[in-house]
Automatic annotation (TrEMBL):
EC number of the protein: 3.1.2.14
Pfam families: Thioesterase
Gene3D superfamilies assigned to the protein according to its UniProt record, in alphabetical order: ACP-like (1.10.1200.10), alpha/beta hydrolase (3.40.50.1820)
Protein name stated in the entry: oleoyl-[acyl-carrier-protein] hydrolase
Domain called Carrier: residue spans: 1-45
GO molecular function: fatty acyl-[ACP] hydrolase activity
Length: 226
């Protein structure tokens, strides 16, 4: 290997792989060593979770909803004041996201033409041992049946994580010879994955966890300062 080739290899490694080697290192370089250096460099990039872009913290606001203590109430059924212009005997069941609180639907409730009932499934509404999709749906089912009375058709709206419970609840109702419709809002896992990639732009699970923790700490710091 002549000196010109060594210089060219050195510049290529520094430019393309951010690897700095001495002339002596280059002389003893082989494919096995180059492969090992590449692996080490990539692992360093994956575990370098300290470099978090400010935009990541801003994007976090797209994926989180702030709750107040007043939003958490023990009632499973929360009746909304709606227009009730269409079939007063009918009833829409609304399932909120993972927080399980009815407040996510409050702004739209006044525009709903049916009677509307929110099925809360938060920590105050369902026992801890029932916090799974299937167990949550099973826990809510008796409340839905009692509310439906002589109705044989249902309309269930699920938002975000609540979409999973809505699907399971519909399955349980159909098993009892009920029929109806499901409306799912932002409940697709692919959509959440897209939002995560779009707004958080993290290169590894470790970086994503750090972004979430930093944003939560920032939120609580602001709240405490107020």
């Amino acid at each position: 290997m002549d000196s010109m080739m060594a210089v060219e290899i050195k510049q290529t490694l520094e430019r393309e792989f951010d690897i700095s080697l001495t002339a002596q290192d280059i002389k003893t370089l082989n494919f096995a060593k180059l492969r090992q250096m590449t692996i080490t460099t990539e692992q360093g990039k994956i575990h370098d979770t300290n470099k978090i872009e400010p935009s990541n913290l801003e994007g976090f606001d797209m994926l989180i909803q702030k709750m107040k203590d007043a939003d958490f109430v023990p009632d499973i059924l929360v009746e909304f004041i709606t227009k009730k212009e269409v079939d007063p005997r009918g009833n829409i069941f609304l399932l909120p996201g993972i927080e399980g609180c009815s407040n996510v639907y409050e702004t739209m409730a006044s525009g709903i033409k049916f009677s509307a009932t929110c099925l809360q499934h938060g920590v105050l509404n369902i026992p801890d041992e029932s916090h799974s999709v299937m167990k949550s749906a099973a826990h809510l089912l008796p409340h839905v049946l009692k509310k439906m009375k002589d109705q044989r058709k249902f309309l269930i709206v699920g938002y975000s994580f609540g979409s999973l419970i809505a699907i399971e609840l519909a399955r349980l109702l159909e098993a009892k010879d009920f029929s109806g419709r499901l409306i799912l809002i932002d409940g697709a896992p692919d959509q959440l994955k897209f939002w995560t990639n779009q707004y958080l732009n993290c290169t590894s699970p470790d970086e994503l966890q750090n972004v979430i923790l930093l944003r939560l700490l920032e939120m609580y710091t602001i709240i405490n300062q107020k």
